[in-house]
Design brief:
Number of domains: 2
Oligomer: single chain
Number of helices: 13
CATH architecture of the largest domain: 3-Layer(bba) Sandwich
Mean pLDDT: 94
CATH class of the largest domain: Alpha Beta
CATH topology of the largest domain: FAD/NAD(P)-binding domain
Shape: elongated
Strand content: 25-35%
Largest sheet: 9 strands, mixed
Length: 428
């Protein structure tokens, strides 16, 4: 009979951290991962660079979570960004802080993070068993006693995998569920944890894609495909009311809009679309200029270049790819000389530059979402330990919980912090 003190289900950042911390605290720990290697999704985090965390103070950090950030105060108070940076440094992984407080490995290679965490967990004594999918949690009299798995498990030995005799059940005093969400399912994040938790009585807040590109009406985005704006201010309008705004970089695609600013707003967009509300995104192409200053700038350019055609005048205002779109949407003839532009036409141009609108019709699927919104209801989890309030001996960590945040390293820090706390709590 396979019996352990702690079983961790899922080998992502939360799982590796939880397993290593449990085992470092003298607990016999088995980590079960259904993929061939742990950390599959972690390898593609931050476009392969791995945005580990953010150096924002804890109060600001929490504000980036929607809407259950306060649940994380205890986890962050035990293990936060400075602790993670020190921890990785001790593993030989140097980090660098970039614009916006985002922290990356100096190597710019997420694989180095996966390798370091895996080596560290195994050094603590964690047994990492891959190609083992957990089918159900075993419960007796309101307490977890183990898990039931599919066949074909393998034990990692260094960089190799060794066949092991088949077994259907593994028993343990504690189980930590760290199976991740439902985004990027090709990496193994297929929502298994929601099914497992629901089967033992936990409430699952409906899951939906978050940090996901958005689809828009018409062909305007298609015409601008590949164009990136570095300093755009985007306002989210729902049923005619302003709901949120974000400043930074965005990208036009063949289906609509993407990039950090759009991803940040996408969670609210997805929820509004689910409620059958009308969603519009307004792009301010000149956020550094208010209406009066922008009008003065336009008058100055017109006076200075009065004989230039309208389309030539726009070269000093817009990226080349935006010019034909601007001409079509403002309705000003491209060959009209600048000094002939009327005050009404100038007003149309100014308004368009400050309020370039897209009607949002949908969002991309989970396969293109960075994270998952929704998950295990945090009201059923003790934030001081990550322990289930329903099943004794069951713990949770990472994206399987109903916690999600903006881009910038916040989500990965939450995975590391909740994994650290869950791992420590199983033996304290």
């Amino acid at each position: 009979m396979d019996r352990h003190q702690v079983i961790v289900v899922g080998g992502g950042p939360a799982g590796l951290m939880a397993a290593g911390q449990a085992c470092a605290s003298v607990a016999d720990t088995l980590l079960l991962e259904k993929m061939e290697h742990p950390g599959r999704k972690l390898r593609i985090t931050g476009k392969g660079r791995c945005n580990l965390t953010n150096v924002a103070p804890i109060g600001d950090f929490i504000q980036h979570f929607n809407p259950n950030g306060r649940f994380l105060y205890s986890a962050f108070s035990h293990f936060f960004s400075d602790d993670l940076i020190t921890f990785l440094s001790e593993l030989g992984v140097a980090t660098v802080t970039e614009r916006g407080g985002r922290v990356f490995p100096v190597s710019n290679d997420a694989q180095h993070i996966v390798d370091a965490l895996t080596r560290w967990a195994e050094k603590q004594g964690v047994v990492i068993q891959v190609q083992t999918k957990v089918e159900q949690l075993l419960i007796e009299q309101g307490r977890i006693v183990g898990v039931e798995v599919l066949h074909n498990p393998k034990i990692r030995e260094g960089k190799q995998s060794k066949d092991r005799s088949l077994s259907q059940r593994y028993f343990a005093e504690r189980v930590i569920l760290t199976t991740g969400g439902a985004s990027y399912p090709g990496t193994g994040s297929t929502g298994d944890g929601y099914r497992l938790a629901k089967a033992v009585g936990h409430t699952i807040i409906p899951i939906r894609p978050a940090l996901v590109p958005l689809e828009t009406h018409g062909d305007t985005a298609l015409r601008l495909k590949g164009l990136s704006l570095r300093n755009a201010n985007v306002t989210l309008i729902v049923d005619g009311e302003k709901r949120a705004e974000a400043f930074g970089e965005m990208l036009f695609t063949h289906f609509g809009l993407s990039g950090p600013v759009i991803l940040t707003l996408s969670r609210r967009v997805v929820d509004a679309l689910r409620d059958h509300q009308e969603v519009t995104l307004s792009i301010d192409l000149k956020p550094a200029l208010d209406d009066a200053k922008l009008d003065a700038r336009l008058l100055h350019d017109i006076d200075l270049h009065g004989k230039q055609h309208y389309q030539t005048l726009l070269q000093g205002l817009l990226p080349k790819k935006l010019i034909p779109v601007c001409i079509d949407l403002t309705g000003i003839p491209p060959d009209k000389q600048a000094h002939q532009i009327t005050s009404q036409e100038r007003s149309r141009l100014r308004i368009w530059l400050k309020d370039f609108r897209f009607q949002v019709t949908g969002h991309r699927p989970f396969t293109q979402a960075i994270i998952t919104a929704g998950g295990i209801d945090t009201r059923e989890v003790d934030p001081r330990t990550m322990a289930s309030r329903i099943i004794d001996g069951l713990y949770f960590a990472g994206e399987v919980l109903d916690i999600d945040a903006d881009t910038g390293g916040y989500n990965l820090q939450a995975a590391f912090s909740t994994g650290w706390l869950a791992g420590r709590s199983t033996v304290e």
